[in-house]
Amino acid sequence: MNLSYDKKTWKNVTWSTQESEQNLTVTQPGYYKFTAETKDGCIAESERLWVIIDAEIWIDPLYQCVIDIFQSGDPNDIIGPAGYGERRWITKNDKMPYRILFENDPEIANAPVKYAYISQKLDSTLDFKTFRLGGFGFAGFTFDVPENTSYYYERIDVKDSLGVYVDVTAGLDVTTGTIFWVFQAVDTASGHPVKGVLEGFLPVNDSVSHAGEAYVDYTIKPKDNAITGDIAHARATIVFDENEPVDTRTIFNTIDAVGPVSRLDSLPEYIDSTHVLLSWRGSDDSTGSGVGSYTIFMSENGEPFREWLSNTRDTTVYFNGTKGNWYRFYSIARDNAGNLENAKSDWEVEFALAGPTYAPVALPAVNVADTCFTAHWEPVSIAQSYRLDVAYDRDFNNYVSGYQDLPVGDTSKTVTWLDGDTTYYYRVRALNPAGPSENSNIIRVQTRNRIYASIKVFMEGPFDVDSMRTDLRQYGYIPLKNPYSGSPWNYTGGDSVSHIPSGVVDWMLVELRSGTGDSTKVSERAAFVKSDGAVVDTNGTDPLSFWDVEEGDYYIVMHHRNHISIMSDSAKHMSGVKPAGYTHDFTTGQGQAYGSDAMKQLATGIFGMFGGDVVPDGYINYATETSKVWNDKDQLGYYSSDINADGYVNYSTESSIIWNNRDTFTQVP
Question: Is-cis flag, bond preceding 268, omega within 30?
Fold first, then answer.
C-alpha cells in the first residue's frame, strides 16, 4: 500500500508500507487530506481533516484518520477430468468437463464484485468446434444454459436479492481460441453498470452462506487427430473490477488415442469336462495408459452373445458349463483411459462339453408339389447344424441322390428334382462339436401329380387379322383375380396374380373331362389367353398345369365370359412332362371342336369361339344379349358387354356381333 498526505501548501509526501495501519506525526496546524492506493491500483481518500497544533507548547498530538479502501479479492481454481493415474489419462473421444471456480475472498475483499471477466486460452490439442457452454452460478444462484450452446447472453434479474441485474455473456473467440465469460452488475433503474462501492453481483464471501462463491462450466473434446501422449492443458484467468488478472493453477490430461487389443487363448473343440479354465491376454499401445479391464462375452448353443464376465482385471477364470452344450467366447478389453477394443465379428474360442446331443423332432413336409417338397423339423437348442437323409424306402437302404447325410444349417430344406406321385421318406440328426445325435422320427411324403396341357384358341371379339388385341391389359382393366367364381361357372380355385403378364388378352376357364358329359369333369383351372392364342398358366409363360390329376386322355373344354364355350373333338393325352408343342390347337379347323359348327371361321383357315354370349348361358339370344349391352353402353372398363375387348361398350359394335351370331348354341354337352 502506498500512503500519502497533503497540506494545501505542501507537496505530496509518499510512504510505502505493507501494513494496514500507519502512524504519522505532523508539526504544523492546517488542513490535511490522506489518500491510500493499493498495489492493484485501488484508490481511496479521507475527508479533509483540520489539525490544530499548540505551537507554544510543542505538544505533538496524535490524530487517527481511518480510510476505508473498498476492493474485491479473488482466490480461484479450475477443475477438469480426473483421468487415470498421475498422467490423468483420458481418451480422445471423451467429452471433457471443466469448472472454473472464483470467490470474493473475505480476507482481501470488503466490497461486492461489480464486473468479472473469466477467460481461458484453449490448448492446441483441443477441438474448438466441440466447445459447449455449461451452467454457471454466483451468490447462491445456479443457472442453466441451453444444450449444445457455444455462445450465450442473458440479463438476469436478481434485484430482489442483490439489488441489481446481471448481464452474462459467454462464448468462444475462434480467432484466438479463447473462451470467456463476462459478468456485469447493472443498475436496475438506469440500465448502466453500477458505480456504488457497495453494489455488485458477488458479495464478499462468508463461511455460512457461501454467497461470495461462483463458477462457470464448459465441455470440450480433444481433436480427432490427437495421438497417444498429447497433453491437454487448462488454466483460466479471472479479473475482478479493476484488479490485476489472477490465474488459476494449470491442470492437464494426457490423451490415449488408441484402444487396446485382446484375445482368448485357444481350447480344444471337444472337452470331456464341465469345468473349463478360460484364459486371455491383452495389450495397449506401447505409450498408452495400459489395459485396465476385460469383458468376456459368451454364447450358449448358438444363442445371441451376452456379457458373461464384466470389467474384470483377471486374465483367467473357471467356467462351469452343461454337458452336451456348446459354447463360444470372445473378449473386449478396455484401457485405463477408457478406450474400448474394437467390436469383434466372430468368436475367439469354441468348444462343446461331453454329453448327449438331443435328436430333433421331424415335422410333416410342407409345400409338397410334384417334383419337390420342404422337409422341416423342430430346432434343437444345442445343435450347431443338422444332417438330412431322404430315401425311397423307410429303412433308408435306397437314398435319393444327393440327400444322404446332407449338411443343413437351418431347420428346413427344400428337396428338389423328385418324381410326381411318388413316396419318399426323410429323417434328420442334430450335430454339434460333441458329435451327431440319434436319428429323428421318420416322415413319409407323397409327391403330388401334375399334368400339363398346351392349348391354342382364338376368340371372335378381340380377333384382328391373325391375332387378338390386348387393349384390356394395356388399359389396366383386367382384374388380378379370375372372374369365374360366380354363376354359371362357380369356380372355386381362386386363381389370382399380383400383376397381369404382358401379351394377355383375358382370363379363361379351362376344364378337363374324362368323357364328353358334364358329369365326367375331372379338374378345372383359370388361365390366361395371350394375343397369339396360347393358353398359359398364371405366370404368363408356362403351359397350363392341373394338380392331382393322373396322366391320361382328357377332353378340353374352354369357357369365356362372353363367348360360346367349346370342347376338343376328342380326348387328348396329358402327362407330367411339359409338351414340346400344342396338346390341342382349336384354331386350325372346324373339326378341332366337338359337335357341329361349334366354332366360327375368323379368317381363311382360322377358327375361333363365337362372340356374343353376354349373358353366359350357352345360347346367343339377340334380345337378351342386346338388352344387357344397352344397359352397359358407353361404359369404360371390364364388362361382359364389351365383346370385342377394347375396353369400351359400343352398342353399335357389340349388337352387330350379337346379330351376326344370333341363335348360336354351344356344342359342349
Answer: no
In the three-class reduction of DSSP (H, G, I as helix; E, B as strand; rest coil), residue 622 is classed as helix
Sign of the CA dihedral 365, 366, 369, 371?
A: negative
Mode of pairing for the β-strands spanning 231-234 and 141-143: unpaired
Give Cα separations from 57 to 27, 29, 54, 60 (angstroms).
11, 13, 6, 9
Q: 261-308 pLDDT, tens per residue?
A: 999 999 998 888 899 999 999 999 999 999 999 999 999 988 999 999
pLDDT by residue (tens digit) across 331-346?
999 999 999 999 999 9
Strand-pair category, 584-585 with 455-456:
parallel
Cα–Cα distance for residue pair 506/527, rounded to 1 Å: 9
Residues 6+ away with beta carbon under 8 Å from 421: 370, 446, 447, 448, 449, 550
- Amino acid (1-letter code) at residue 481: K
| Other beta carbons less than 10 A from residue 456's beta carbon | 19
pTM above 0.85, yes or no: no
Distance (Å, rounded) from C-alpha 156 to C-alpha 561? 85
Instruction: Single out the residue of 254, 172, 215 nearest to residue 74, CA to CA.
Output: 215
Using alpha carbons, select from 331, 372, 373, 322 the residue that is nearest to residue 349: 331
Distance of alpha carbon 429 from alpha carbon 219, whole angstroms:
60
The cell 376328342 sits on which residue?
A: 570
CA distance 341 to 328: 19
Q: Which three cell numbers stand for residue 90?
A: 483420458
